[in-house]
């Protein structure tokens, strides 16, 4: 399944946050018409505008940068982040909590990989 473009993704996130375009414009300091053009795919937002939008929607600015083509998608972990952010069944607080937990697990593993179980020595030290 293809990921939606940046405008579609932003519209989904705004709707999930139950914000009108006007409310998002007020929160970001970006004009209502400009946000509308971004959502419709007529404009490509700058990194600064994406950061303001991410902050207002309380989502990962990195995920927005990747979707907008401003960062390379390494593939590691992004599918999980996208799934969490796009899940309409989760509220914003739940999304933030899941992303924080996921990020902490990746950081704790050092390599950024959550699929590596700890070695036997690590397990015995934790006990």
Order of helices and strands: HHHHHHHH
Question: What proportion strand?
Answer: under 5%
The percentage helix is: 55-70%
Task: Report the C-alpha radius of gyration, rounded.
Answer: 17 Å
Low-confidence stretches: 113-127
CATH class: Mainly Alpha
Largest sheet: none
CATH topology: 434 Repressor (Amino-terminal Domain)
**Shape label:** globular
**Corresponding CATH superfamily:** lambda repressor-like DNA-binding domains
Domain HTH cro/C1-type: 10-64
GO cellular component, one term: cytosol
Region (Disordered): 108-127
GO molecular function: DNA binding; DNA-binding transcription factor activity
Protein architecture, described:
This protein has 127 residues and is mostly helical. It has a single domain, classed as Orthogonal Bundle (434 Repressor (Amino-terminal Domain)), CATH 1.10.260.40. It has helices at residues 6-16, 21-28, 32-39, 47-57, 61-68, 78-86, 92-108, 120-126. The longest helix has 17 residues, at 92-108. InterPro entries: Cro/C1-type_HTH (IPR001387), Lambda_DNA-bd_dom_sf (IPR010982), TransReg_Diox_bact_type (IPR050807). Keywords: DNA-binding. It holds the Pfam family HTH_3.
């Amino acid at each position: 399944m293809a990921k939606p473009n940046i405008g579609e993704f932003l519209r989904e996130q705004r709707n999930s946050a139950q914000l009108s375009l006007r409310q998002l414009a007020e929160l970001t300091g970006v004009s209502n018409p400009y946000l509308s053009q971004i959502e419709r795919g007529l404009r490509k937002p700058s990194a600064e505008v994406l950061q303001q939008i991410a902050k207002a929607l309380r989502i990962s600015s990195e995920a927005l940068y990747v979707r907008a083509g401003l960062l390379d998608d390494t593939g590691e972990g992004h599918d999980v982040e996208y799934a969490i952010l796009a899940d309409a069944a989760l509220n914003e607080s739940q999304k933030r909590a899941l992303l924080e937990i996921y990020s902490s697990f990746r950081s704790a593993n050092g390599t950024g990989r959550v699929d590596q179980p700890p070695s036997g020595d690590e397990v015995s030290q934790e006990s």
